[in-house]
Amino acid sequence: MNQTAPLWSPSAEEIAASPMTAFMALAAKASGKPIADYEALHAWSIDDREAFWSLVWDYCDVIGERGERTLIDGDMMPGARFFPDAKLNFAENLLRKTGGSDALVFRGEDKVERRLSWDELRALVSRLQQLFRAHGVKAGDRVAAMMPNMPETIACMLATASIGAIWSSCSPDFGEQGVLDRFGQIEPVLFIAPDGYWYAGKRIDVSAKIAAVLEKMPSVKAAFVVDYLGTANDVAGGIAKAEALDTALAPFAPASLQFERQAFDHPLYILFSSGTTGIPKCIVHSAGGALLQHVKEQRLHAGIGDGDRFFYFTTCGWMMWNWLVSGLASGATLLLYDGSPFYPNGNAIFDFAQAEKMTYFGTSAKFIDSVRKEGLRPIETHDLSSVRVISSTGSPLAPECFRFVYDGIKKDVHLASISGGTDIVSCFVLGVPIKPVWVGEIQGAGLGMAVDVWDDSGNPVRGEKGELVCTRAFPCMPVKFWADPDGSKYKAAYFDRFDNVWCHGDFAEWTEHGGLIIHGRSDATLNPGGVRIGTAEIYNQVEQMEEILEALCIGQTWDDDVRVVLFVRLAEGVVLDEALEKKIRTKIRTGASPRHVPARIVPVDDIPRTKSGKITELAVRDVVHGRPVKNKEALANPEALELYRDIAALQS
């Protein structure tokens, strides 16, 4: 990409005021050598990880006992352990601030508006902590939530973490099986759900789903229904084990919070892989790793500090929710939005930004592209003077969307395209506030992250596409996968490709400016609109239908995004007409989620398989995109691939 000038450059004043600059001065002092730019700072953060992560702990004022050692077995992936002697509590670090100013500001479309001060949030967490303990919740227990992005969700997570229990969440639009595929594996003792939610102005009832999930999840001792639509008592009254949360909290008055400090690598979150090759993998993240990585990214890369008004458009089933919540540790007010970002129109989020004086505006690449395609120009209709950073993630941000941010949203803003994932509950590459922004490029690798791009032989490459890897251990690597006693699933997920090197499954490319371009997934995971989706979750639905013998699903690059394409092999005599297409989409929408619904459904006569009988999504995806297929010799029926070439239905 030949570029003559950056889209944006920080001013001398902005560079001088950046926390990154202050940190750089401390790093130079700690290292005893000059560190004059980001490249030198990043190199030091990789070369001396012990000094770097110790400095992050001190600079970000982590609450806890650090202990003597910073890193043991640092050359092992997996196996390295950061701060092995430390003791801390995640919730204690997020609830350090007190007072009457906003901690959380919530909008549920145009239906609900609420605020919680820091003192009110602490009081709610205290009452929840007492409630959870009264139900016997202890360190290591799992608490699962199928919740909207609302204040109670954050408070319940903080109460869970304060005890040392493990939090796991998804959004309420997941189908019954999608919820069970996740939470059924981890056997939660508590389940939290809303009485319903709003989407595109419609009330969505979830009472039947709650009842069905609880019936099939015997580990749950109690369920709490959060009032969002005003019907929590009615919903809870019809479900065994359930109680309205407000009713359950009534006996408990706010009291002094108790924080149980645990080891640095004590489990905090369970997040879920996309279910590409089966039910989703349960990825266990540590309290210390998530905290240290998040405060590093937010204080240094995002410049978030006390008094910032921090927004990310996310659901509770996406790791960006976990990332957003950590903003409390820096004293930022969290701006929460739940529902459709285009209801009642495409200005909804910009209205929110203007009204609440948003300083960090986080969203998806798909949202920016949709605003552009709708012809909206917030730069002319909204006062966004408070916005310092616009951040984009979920899928690669197209070059025209980079330009649109500056042309159509705000001229003087730091556009931070970021990329990482559920696997690390954070970022590998992200914004660098002291560097220019170039069209189509993520500014750089995160501090402490030994990111590189390798070819298939494990050689570093420059200026060409390769696998995104991380060559040295980092604190936010998962602790383990749940129900993976020998660690074999964990090792296979990230370390089978290159020994002792994290292989992330992204196609990436270094640029001449030291930035990176992410070209999408290199595995079979789907990524429509920036939401990672596993093909197995779709198969689980459609292959229950008698009309369908088997199915294969891919993500097709389309219109600067990825769309889901479902190929179906039909039962004898069955025709894919409009009625069957509708039936398939309804089945997927209700059984998995609306995000899983394919954009195209295409009938095929055969589905290619490996000699071991596995369907081969990657080969089909390559054929559809006109790319050569690797390892055809591994296929039992390679001739079937020709059925997928030049399909007319995929050209529009």
From TrEMBL:
EC number: 6.2.1.16
Presence of the UniProt keyword Nucleotide-binding in the record: yes
InterPro entries: Acac_CoA_synth, ACAS_N, AMP-bd_C, AMP-bd_C_sf, AMP-binding_CS, AMP-dep_synth/lig_dom, ANL_N_sf
Span of domain AMP-dependent synthetase/ligase: 96-470
SUPFAM superfamilies: Acetyl-CoA synthetase-like
Domain annotation Acetyl-coenzyme A synthetase N-terminal: ranges: 38-93
Enzyme class, broadest EC rank: ligase
Key words of the record: ATP-binding, Ligase, Nucleotide-binding
Location of the AMP-binding enzyme C-terminal domain: 543-614
GO molecular function, one term: acetoacetate-CoA ligase activity
Alphabetized NCBIfam families for the sequence: ac_ac_CoA_syn, PRK03584.1
Protein family per UniProt: Belongs to the ATP-dependent AMP-binding enzyme family.
Protein name as annotated: Acetoacetate--CoA ligase
Organism: Neoaquamicrobium sediminum
